[in-house]
Amino acid sequence: MNTTEAPLRVAVLGARGKVGREICKAVEAVSDMTLVAEIDAGDPIERLVESGAQAVVDFTHPDVVMGNLQFCIENGIHAVVGTTGFDDERLARLGELLAASPETGVLIAANFSIGAILMMRFAAQAAPLFESVEIVELHHPTKADAPSGTAGRTAELIAAARREANSPAMPDATSQEIDGARGADVDGVRVHSVRVRGLVAHQEVILGGLGETLTIRHDSIDRAGFGPGVLAGLRAIEAHPGLTIGLEHFLDLP
Amino acid sequence: MNTTEAPLRVAVLGARGKVGREICKAVEAVSDMTLVAEIDAGDPIERLVESGAQAVVDFTHPDVVMGNLQFCIENGIHAVVGTTGFDDERLARLGELLAASPETGVLIAANFSIGAILMMRFAAQAAPLFESVEIVELHHPTKADAPSGTAGRTAELIAAARREANSPAMPDATSQEIDGARGADVDGVRVHSVRVRGLVAHQEVILGGLGETLTIRHDSIDRAGFGPGVLAGLRAIEAHPGLTIGLEHFLDLP
Amino acid sequence: MNTTEAPLRVAVLGARGKVGREICKAVEAVSDMTLVAEIDAGDPIERLVESGAQAVVDFTHPDVVMGNLQFCIENGIHAVVGTTGFDDERLARLGELLAASPETGVLIAANFSIGAILMMRFAAQAAPLFESVEIVELHHPTKADAPSGTAGRTAELIAAARREANSPAMPDATSQEIDGARGADVDGVRVHSVRVRGLVAHQEVILGGLGETLTIRHDSIDRAGFGPGVLAGLRAIEAHPGLTIGLEHFLDLP
Amino acid sequence: MNTTEAPLRVAVLGARGKVGREICKAVEAVSDMTLVAEIDAGDPIERLVESGAQAVVDFTHPDVVMGNLQFCIENGIHAVVGTTGFDDERLARLGELLAASPETGVLIAANFSIGAILMMRFAAQAAPLFESVEIVELHHPTKADAPSGTAGRTAELIAAARREANSPAMPDATSQEIDGARGADVDGVRVHSVRVRGLVAHQEVILGGLGETLTIRHDSIDRAGFGPGVLAGLRAIEAHPGLTIGLEHFLDLP
């Protein structure tokens, strides 16, 4: 970071939500940013302009995020967005809005955990170089879906990388199976979902070839884990006008 | 061990099989035993008596093991047996034979890996003290059955311990599942079977309660891992006349 | 638990401390106990009697705990104590007090995490059955001491178990070492201390013999992990009059 | 691979060594190569030409490898080399020889394990994105050096990546340490060396930031693990004339 520059003026939308509060803390904890506004449902969005915010972080709700972003883009305020619910139509609409404000940047990311992003990226890169790849994801037992969204996405990335490389089918001689033992088949990749009290959110990708295995494991135990990723997004957003999908494009990776 | 005593005279039946060869090496490598006979299919079993064997190790075949044991018991030779296929009828027959030779000991064990035995024992002891228990077993992809026999047996021991302690059902809020994601249900315990090239035989039991997890993992990478368990069986067999099922009864555990 | 009995009346001393607050929540969350008093510095201890407490949990301070316990014992109130600082003199004094109130029970425990207690117990039991044992403990980087207290205690238990069993020295052919690579030597057991942001409190005991390893790992991510252990102490305290050191004596283990 | 081409004609130098034998098996097991010569100490190297070898694999000895390579290069035979002992002088000499045979390729690699190469690469890429990075390497207890060569190399790559990114020093509040607990300091990166019977060669790189950790683990249990890397080298060598240091340059990574 360039320490001679003035701190970036940041506002948080959804500032009283669980994630929003962590983001506020993270922004306040670093010296190259200033938290200038904490806005939540009921607060007038015009406060963004009054506060002189240069960039916002939006962890709100699919119902309000498009209005928030229209206001930001029209006022030349960059946005780092963790809210979900963007379909092709919404992305097209954002593209139009941004075309009229060509210096403004919007980053939309499904995951701000740097560890999770790298786990997916490394798993996909390594997948064609090994005979076998399986995923074990482990979560608290109050989770409704199995596998997790991250595990499903990881499996798709692995499958795509192997198709591209013409990787052969993975070896599996299972002929006697108690139903479910071999996990779910997601695009040809086996995914196993463990649910145990005391866990939070964990995932292991196990890749193996003759005589060796490579395991890439991500452990996330706290919403605070989103902080560094959001800060990375804020630090890079000015240099990336237009629409970016996925924080990985802002990380300095080869 | 009492170093003033003469070394125990040991013979190996099935000495040219994969496990048998490792057992021969293990016996030869220690100073309190002497390997006096290596016998395999086609060799006359009378060589046991000629060699002066005090104890045999039998890793042969269900078709021949009963004949081997009858010969051993009638000649007062102790036996440590890893061969499979013992049903109630066979065990009853061994009981009759041993009744007529009351100083002879026979140990029959499904598993001579000390690590696997302890994993199962500790898992069963701990299971009633946690809300959740699941099993992940990981093996090479040429394995035919899923889950592994060890995983199935571990699940049964866990289930029995929890029933005895009146443990409540494990928490699991899964409502949306891709088929198989939550693994196989073995006696109420979820078991996940990973098959990846480069693995040998591994198992993890994950136990969890509020804010903490306890994981017991066994990694077996070599048949040589049976050696220490067989030696422990040989060292204890003289002091345990009659029939013993399971090496755990010979290990010095509270 | 016997559901026909009235709920146990529990008071918490140190109720506004970090651990105390979790204990209050844990007591309130179960149906076989009632939280009758939350007491902290400045509150009159006589409220214990007024509240009708049958048992207290004390997570206070070495300076006040002896006074608290004298009051409890003299009033026939059982105590489950997580406060530190008990030396031989203090334990002797508690013995005298309890002799005069023979139906009252006091449990003093350094660790209420059931997972940590089992990790130590299993590690000590298994240690004489393997050639090698090492400890890797992993904590957040704001921790002042290395190794952790739990790792030091685990190493001592392992060393004692191996001495008792006349286990030989562990194999180690290291002849070229960068200073510190092989960890700290605690009573002959190697202990490695990892300090990484994002970790909380974790420990792995790795035991190995020919061809196999057994790993016992404890992960603690939340003070709430003390809750189940404290509840177990409360449930058993009435049946254990006198002084007990260590929660393990109350857990139903062989 | 292009299945319409004739199989690559491969010779192995050091064919009766431990690694050499595994390489011979690996070459024989695939359909796009033919093993045309197995050469070891005492065999005339001219057999390479007679056999029509297009590429050799050299796992021999520093004393003979330069002679082997001179012969190969002068005869236009590509070489994939796992033998050690190449200093700047030797590399310069190879450069001269290759200048005179511009279509011949020589690959020199310290490590043919694809898993180990990826572990090092991913660790170095991720290191600047996290606050903390430490290495735990685990090996059999007959190993002489601690840390392992791979761990030392990994630490250097991590340190270089963090210097380049101006990463701040890692957090570490340790103020009370039993000597060695915090491991060896290799270029500012802490490395812990575990030595336990039953292990082979394993390494874990643990990276952590607020609320999350990323762990990259490599397990190598068999020399056969070199096979796929050597085959990858053989398949790519024709397309890479000149001198290449490190198999990573041949793997299809972004």
Please give a structural write-up.
- The structure is a homotetramer of 254-residue chains.
- With 254 residues, the first copy, chain A, is an alpha/beta fold.
- Chain A has helices spanning 18-28, 47-50, 62-74, 88-99, 114-126, 149-164, 227-237; strands at residues 8-13, 33-39, 55-58, 78-81, 105-108, 132-139, 145-146, 176-177, 184-186, 189-195, 201-209, 212-220, 242-245.
- In chain A, 31% of the residues lie in helices and 27% in strands.
- A six-stranded parallel β-sheet of chain A has the order 2-1-3-4-5-13, with helices on both faces.
- In chain A, helix 1 packs across helix 7 (227-237).
- Chain A is elongated and about 65 Å long.
- The two termini of chain A are 20 Å apart.
- Chains in contact: A-B, A-C, A-D, B-C, B-D, C-D.
- At the A-B interface, strand 6, strand 7, strand 8, strand 9 and strand 10 of A face strand 6, strand 7, strand 8, strand 9 and strand 10 of B.
- Strand 8 (176-177) of chain A pairs parallel with strand 7 (145-146) of chain B.
Query: What general form of chain A does the structure show?
Result: elongated
Helix/strand/pairing category of chain A: alpha/beta
pLDDT averaged over residues of chain A: 95
Kindly report how far apart the N and C termini of chain A lie.
20 Å
What's the alpha carbon Rg of chain A, rounded to whole Å? Answer: 21 Å
Oligomerization status of the protein chains: homotetramer
Pfam families (chains A, B, C, D): DapB_C, DapB_N
Keywords (chains A, B, C, D): Amino-acid biosynthesis, Cytoplasm, Diaminopimelate biosynthesis, Lysine biosynthesis, NAD, NADP, Oxidoreductase
EC number (chains A, B, C, D): 1.17.1.8
Binding site for NAD(+) (chains A, B, C, D): 14-19, 46, 82-84, 109-112
